[in-house]
Amino acid sequence: MASSNTSHLKSITLYHLMIKGQKMIGIKFSPDRLIQGLIKGLPDPKWSSGHQMAYIPHTKENLGIIFNTFKGVVWINYNRFLSNRPLNKSDEPVDVSWFRKRKPIPGYRLCPEEYLLKLELKRYANATVKTYVNFFEIFINHYKDRELATLDESDIRAFLQFLIHKNVSNSYLNQVINAIKFYYEVVLGMPNRFYEIERPRKSSKLPTVISKQEILSVIDNTNNIKHRCIIELLYGSGLRRSELLNLKINDVDSKRMLILVKDSKGNKDRNTLLSKTALEHLRIYYKQYKPTTFLFEGGQGKQYSAESVLKIVKTASVKARIRTRVTPHVLRHSFATHLLESGVDLRQIQVLLGHGSSKTTEIYTHVAVNTFESIKNPLD
């Protein structure tokens, strides 16, 4: 679609638009007589003052006509129009049946079937499915008397402003935006349509970390061997809560002293450390509880629940009289920070945590004690 002399060509950028409930191809360009003349020769061209661009009906034929009209004369930028986003390749079974089986609630608009179907076909993680459906339903019930196809960027922006006035967090707002974008851009097939929706700035909060002595105190205040093993793996292997719950018995490699984490965040596999102490306790736990599939199971051999893990960590930390609010992720943060403080290379920590970017791991340099030990205080 490009030639080697694209830097010398005039350009247009294609966008997805929804005008009066109909899909349109938006054509944005800087004022130019040649481009304006070529656009006039397209099928039924119109101008949108709201979007500040020309547009024609969205059909395969019209897309081909645009290509043939501008080819070799004007550079066509498809970046906003085409999407190369890969499908979720996780093997985790996707379950949207719960949402389908819900009884209709008077006056409450449920998530459209095509939304659920696309989540299912794209194999999104169950946690993401739940988040997207819940937030999208909040949005569509804010405009319950409007057809979804008639909602545009200004409506979405008004809804986000409504949420901001309710003092919701930046994380909450970002999840709402993701859920809405999924409908228009993935379900309706209009990638990058909402290019002008502003996202809140990410807050740069430091990770919460507790000392090794406090970690050992939390472990000592667990109720049984199962609870002890759960906390020892969260801390000693730096696992996310979801990763712990997805562990199978064979994922524990006692010969190499590693734990294989499959399909973690970003659908990546990785190896992380297995503590000798944790392995000894895991052997005792295995003989006592006899799990069959997952390393940690609830009733009837089902996967252990996320709520149960959180409760175990909270209960043990309260009994240990830890003033800091301790969660499974605080144990993971502490694992990374304590490794850094003991001299482990930041790149190695990045691999153990499964971070895609070193910038994510670098945050621990801001809380590691040895970062500040070498700095002489000006008061002293």
Automatic annotation (TrEMBL):
Any one Pfam family match given in the protein's UniProt record, by short name: Phage_int_SAM_4
Ranges for domain Tyr recombinase: 205-380
Domain annotation Core-binding (CB): ranges: 106-188
SUPFAM superfamilies noted in UniProt: DNA breaking-rejoining enzymes
Any GO BP annotation: DNA integration
Gene3D superfamilies, per the entry: 1.10.150.130, Intergrase catalytic core (1.10.443.10)
Keywords: DNA integration, DNA recombination, DNA-binding
Recorded GO MF terms: DNA binding
Transit peptide among keywords: no
Family: Belongs to the 'phage' integrase family.
UniProt protein name: Site-specific recombinase XerD
